[in-house]
Design goal:
With 262 residues, this protein is of the alpha/beta class. The chain has helices spanning 14-30, 47-50, 62-69, 122-135, 148-156, 167-176, 205-218, 221-227, 237-241, 258-261; strands at 2-3, 55-59, 73-80, 90-91, 93-98, 112-116, 139-144, 162-166, 183-188, 192-193, 197-200, 231-233. The protein has two domains: 2-82 and 193-240, D-Maltodextrin-Binding Protein, domain 2 (3-Layer(aba) Sandwich), CATH 3.40.190; 93-190, Periplasmic binding protein-like II (D-Maltodextrin-Binding Protein, domain 2, 3-Layer(aba) Sandwich), CATH 3.40.190.10. 35% of the residues lie in helices and 21% in strands. Helix 4 (122-135) links the parallel strand 6 and strand 7 (139-144). The termini are far apart.
């Protein structure tokens, strides 16, 4: 069995995610449902876990869901992280540049070198590309970093000019990472449905939704604050499928290996 909460699981959040999972696990077992003792971390928390027939719970991104997972996994619900300016369960990206860069708006970054976490990222790739299209500019795929923190650090270190960071991740970076002081926010993307919880196809999603909702409510406030976690909402799958899907960096010709992109 696999359970993973890998999307907001940086070191400072792991104890809170462990506590959340313990509440979910015990709630599932009280309902007669099998659940693993602890969370899976590492590679098993992502594609390997998302597509596993023994998946009890994981969190994915809207782009992987609409591009590859829809119809192959069960959609449970979407956590609400209370992102400013967004409806419950929705989120957006903030676009960051070096604090000393004279440009102050995204529109001024036409042709700029973009650092992004991965090709199938809604917040790191699809959302800023949609914004660029709407502004009539180009954000050039330059550095495939492997993670939002790495993208933000690449901008701070001058290896890219701009990056789009999931607003929840950005709040964590701003709180915990010293390099964030060398960055500024120059814009934000339109809200889209947030990162949904999923399970293996055929799972009892009503029970999962009820148990997860109860676990979030029972989680101590200190842990909820660390995870920026407010509750759980239902968002129709069609809302995820309706989000625009731009060509990926690979489709635009960028090399696959992050270590070569730099």
């Amino acid at each position: 069995m696999i359970a993973a909460l890998g999307m907001y699981d940086r070191a400072e959040a792991q104890a809170s995610n462990n506590r959340l999972w313990a509440l979910i696990r015990d709630g599932l077992r009280a309902e007669g449902k099998a659940a693993p003792d602890g969370l899976t971390r590492g590679a098993g928390a992502y594609w390997d876990g998302w597509t596993a027939p023994e998946l009890v719970l994981s969190q994915t991104c809207g782009f992987p869901y609409r591009a590859r997972l829809h119809g192959k996994v069960a959609l449970i619900g979407t956590p609400d992280h209370g992102v400013a300016g967004c409806a419950p369960g929705h989120y957006r990206s903030v676009l960051v540049a070096r604090a000393k860069d004279p440009r102050e708006t995204v529109a001024a970054f036409d042709g700029a070198a973009l650092a992004f976490n991965e090709d199938l990222s809604q917040s790191g790739w699809a959302a800023p590309q949609t914004l660029a299209r709407d502004l009539g500019i180009t954000l050039r795929p330059h550095l495939r970093s492997g993670g939002h923190m790495a993208s933000a650090r690449a901008v701070a270190e001058g290896r890219a000019e701009i990056a789009a960071i999931d607003a929840v991740t950005w709040a964590m970076i701003a709180r915990y990472d010293a390099f964030a002081a060398g960055l500024k926010v120059v814009g934000q993307t339109a809200p889209t449905p947030g990162l949904p919880y999923i399970a293996a196809l055929g799972s009892d999603t009503d029970t999962l939704f009820r148990v997860i909702s109860g676990a979030i409510a029972a989680l101590p406030q200190q842990n909820r604050d660390i995870l920026h976690l407010h509750g759980l909402v239902r968002i129709d799958p069609d809302a995820y499928l309706a989000v625009p899907t731009p060509p990926t960096p690979a489709e635009l010709g960028l090399k696959q290996r992050p270590d070569l992109d730099a």
